[in-house]
Write a structure and sequence with these properties.
Layout: H1 2-14, H2 19-24, H3 29-77, H4 80-92, H5 110-113, E1 119-121, H6 143-150, E2 157-161, H7 168-180, E3 193-198, H8 199-209, H9 213-221, H10 236-242, E4 246-251, H11 258-274, E5 279-284, H12 286-290, E6 297-302, H13 307-326, H14 331-349, H15 352-355, H16 361-374, H17 381-399, H18 408-424, E7 430-431, H19 432-445, H20 451-461, E8 465-469, E9 472-475, H21 478-491, H22 496-503, H23 509-516, H24 523-532, H25 535-547, H26 553-564, E10 577-578, H27 583-587, E11 603-606, E12 609-612, E13 617-620, H28 630-642, H29 656-660, E14 684-691, E15 697-702, E16 707-712, E17 722-723
Parallel strand pairs: 2-5, 2-6, 3-4, 4-5, 10-14
Antiparallel strand pairs: 1-6, 7-9, 8-9, 11-12, 12-13, 13-17, 14-15, 15-16
Protein name: NACHT domain-containing protein
InterPro entries: Lcl_C, NACHT_NTPase, P-loop_NTPase
Pfam family, one: NACHT
Length: 724
């Protein structure tokens, strides 16, 4: 009875769907018959084989349903998202200092030090590979602006390109930290799940197995050795990616081996299409991207640090360093950090050759680290240059776990003759054919054959030597060329004749200083300067003695006496009108309108002023920041005195003899004929001396050319005021 009743109920229920064809009968009778007949045939067949089919499928269906329920519950209640974001923070919270020879005292918090980079839309082929190039582009913004715009575009990535050390990897780490900490709201962005992967670690897997991004992320974060406590639930990354909830950060396309790079780029393109609602950001150096670009990407170029960004970084860096080392965060630590930062910034301002390096965040980090570790920047700049070159040539790559066939020493051995040859010919660039001829024998000595491959890899990995234009190569900065030439001189002995020729030519003076800073005894070089006996040679000898490792004490004393005995200029302080016919005689100039004699200055900076103990004059360290007409120059002086600038109200325009006392016989590292203790913006300065028989012109000194000139009153010149 019970079994019969159950079958009757099932039969009756199975006929319920026939009400649909019945309702359809009046409008479409043929369709209703076909629909009813098909349904009855299905019921008839199921009645014979349905039980057997269900029994066969039942285990698989039940298992699949159980797995789905289990995974959903685990994903919903495991707390994995919270654990995952913690591990992202653990991975990327420290600012990288690996690869630096001078050790950092502790790892700093990236969020405390980071300064937003400026990015600008660009074309991949136009992105600079020079880590020291000062550059600006229209439309520059922070990455947050470009991410906001990306929300309205599907299946489009951001490709962030820039030279070595410009901060690409650090930027991706900061993005990961920001989203992991749910701090993206300040930038009006949604709460993406950050997935940061370093492509060099996964290139072989991508090439050999071509997993989906979800599978790759799942395998990476499920690695028990790397993440023993993370244990991501199955399909968690797949669900996030399919739902468009992820910010995918792929770092270092250029660090992928060339044989694998094309496969990796194609794989990235496929993932961008597969997960169109996610945001993708990829970084690379220019060369590594130009040859294998993404199909759908907006190219953004990383711009070098401005002076404001560099200062902000230094202040952030010192504050974070002092808080970490003292475990104290109060106004006193803030004060101490500001003092240390001020000291470093001031040292950089008085060493323009170092200040130029601050456009690159990596090099600026190295400078700050050395300053903090030593308590000062090395007086002998050569130590800093040596560390920078070694980091660029080897340590940085090895710190990333990238194998290199050549050591830094081997690369130096190949670069030394290049630097020497370019200095000897007073060149900044060389055609590839000449470079190849220079490098080929030295490259073979270190086991390499192909010069172009060596140059390309050197450019991509360090940016030390660059293809400035098609087929034309040069060092990223003259400083590197000069340092490597000096280091080459140190490796082999240089005869006295080489020094005599170089002492007479200011093109070589920086090399001579850097050489003296490395050689065991600089006495022979200084003795050559003294033998020549000119004011320029003696002053160069004084500069060399300041940077040299060792100098014979008696020789040092003799040099000091010789410098003190140099004739002083007659420093007239009263304004005078001087004719164009007599100015050479009155101002004591040679035929090139340069001084016949130079003063050995004894500068001492005191805040915003510089005291020259050799003349007793007090100068503005900077001066006017803009070019001024002669009338505006008078107003500028009046304005200083009105506010008692520097604590004095007797500032005036200097006379030509006074301005000439500032001239050096050779260019300094700033490129000007003036000591770098002064601000380098004041290229041409007005004097109080006017041109006789002219109602509208005055004399001035050109610090970029090293001599005297005159200019009409309406011309623009700078002002550097003086007081006696």
């Amino acid at each position: 009875m019970g079994e019969t009743f159950k079958k009757s109920v099932l039969l009756l229920c199975s006929q319920i769907p026939l009400f649909a064809p019945a309702l359809l009968w009046r409008q479409q009778p043929l369709a209703a018959v076909i629909l009813a007949g098909s349904y009855e045939l299905l019921i008839f067949v199921w009645g014979f084989v349905g039980r057997d089919v269900w029994e066969a499928l039942k285990p698989d269906v039940v298992k699949a349903l159980t797995d789905w329920i289990k995974t959903s519950i685990l994903n919903a209640f495991s707390g994995f998202r919270k654990r995952y974001k913690k591990h992202v923070t653990y991975d990327h919270r420290g600012i990288g200092t690996r690869g630096l020879r001078t050790p950092a005292r502790a790892q700093l918090a990236l969020t405390k030090v980071f300064v937003d980079l400026q990015l600008a839309p660009s074309h991949a082929s136009q992105v600079s590979s020079n880590p020291l190039e000062a550059k600006s582009l229209p439309g520059s913004q922070t990455v947050w602006t470009f991410l906001q715009r990306l929300k309205s575009q599907k299946a489009v990535a951001l490709a962030i390109l820039g030279p070595p050390g410009c901060g690409k990897s650090t930027l991706l780490k900061y993005l990961a930290l920001t989203f992991a900490g749910n701090k993206q709201r300040r930038y009006h962005l949604r709460a993406f799940v950050p997935i940061l992967l370093f492509l060099r670690e996964h290139a072989r897997t991508i090439h050999d197995e071509s997993p989906t991004l979800a599978e790759l992320a799942q395998a990476h974060f499920a690695n028990p050795k790397r993440y023993p406590e993370l244990e991501p639930p199955a399909t968690w990354f797949q669900k996030q990616l399919r739902a468009g909830r992820c910010l995918v950060l792929l770092d270092g396309l250029d660090e992928v081996a060339e044989t694998l790079r094309n496969s990796v780029v194609k794989w990235v393109d496929r993932q961008i299409v597969a997960y169109p609602n996610c945001c993708f950001v990829l970084t690379a150096r220019p060369k590594g991207y130009v040859e294998t670009p993404l199909n759908r990407a907006q190219v953004l170029e990383v711009l070098p640090f401005s002076s404001e960004q560099a200062e902000r970084f230094v202040r952030n860096w010192y504050l974070a360093t002092m808080i970490l080392s003292s475990d104290i965060d109060d106004p006193g630590i803030q004060r101490d950090a500001d003092l240390e930062a001020d000291d470093l910034l001031e040292r950089l301002r008085t060493q323009p050759a170092l200040e130029k390096l601050t456009v690159n965040p990596l090099l600026l980090t190295m400078i700050a680290n050395v300053h903090n570790y030593r308590g000062a920047l090395p007086k002998r700049r050569v130590e800093l240059y040596a560390e920078i070159c070694d980091v660029l040539l080897e340590h940085w790559q090895s710190a990333k776990g990238i194998d290199d066939e050549l050591s830094a020493a081997q690369k130096r051995a190949v670069l030394y003759p290049v630097a020497e040859s370019m200095m000897a010919r007073q060149l900044r660039t060389l055609p590839f054919e000449e470079l190849q001829a220079l490098m080929d024998p030295h490259l073979k000595r270190v086991g390499q054959e192909k010069v172009l491959d060596f140059l390309t890899k050197l450019q991509d990995e360090s940016g030390l030597l660059l293809e400035q234009e098609s087929g034309v190569w040069g060092f990223a900065h003259l400083t590197f060329q000069e340092y490597l030439c000096a280091a080459s001189w140190k490796e082999r002995s240089s005869d006295e004749q080489d020094w005599r020729a170089a002492i007479h030519d200011d093109w070589w003076h920086e090399v001579l200083r850097l050489y003296a800073a490395q050689v065991a005894d600089a006495s022979p070089l200084i003795r050559t300067c003294m033998d020549l006996g000119t004011a320029g040679a003696l002053k160069l000898g004084g500069n060399i003695a300041e940077e040299a490792l060792t100098v014979d004490p008696d020789l040092r004393e003799a040099l000091k006496r010789a410098l003190e005995e140099l004739p002083d200029l007659h420093l007239r302080s009263a304004a005078q009108s001087v004719s164009t016919e007599e100015f050479e005689r009155i101002f004591e100039l040679d035929s090139a309108w340069r001084p016949l004699a130079y003063i050995h200055n004894q500068y001492e900076r005191q805040g915003d002023v510089v005291l020259d103990r050799a003349t007793g004059l007090i100068w503005q360290q900077s001066g006017s920041s803009e070019r001024l007409s002669y009338a505006q120059a008078a107003d500028y002086v009046e304005g200083l005195n009105a506010v008692n600038w520097g604590g004095f109200a007797d500032w005036r325009l200097p006379t030509i003899p006074e301005l000439l006392s500032l001239l050096d016989p050779e260019r300094s590292s700033s490129g000007l004929y003036i000591d770098p203790i002064f601000d380098v913006r004041q290229l041409w300065c007005w004097s109080a001396d006017r041109v006789a028989a002219s109602s509208g012109s005055a004399w001035g000194v050109n610090f970029s050319g090293g001599g005297v000139h005159w200019g009409y009153f309406q011309y623009g010149g700078y002002v550097r005021c003086v007081r006696s």
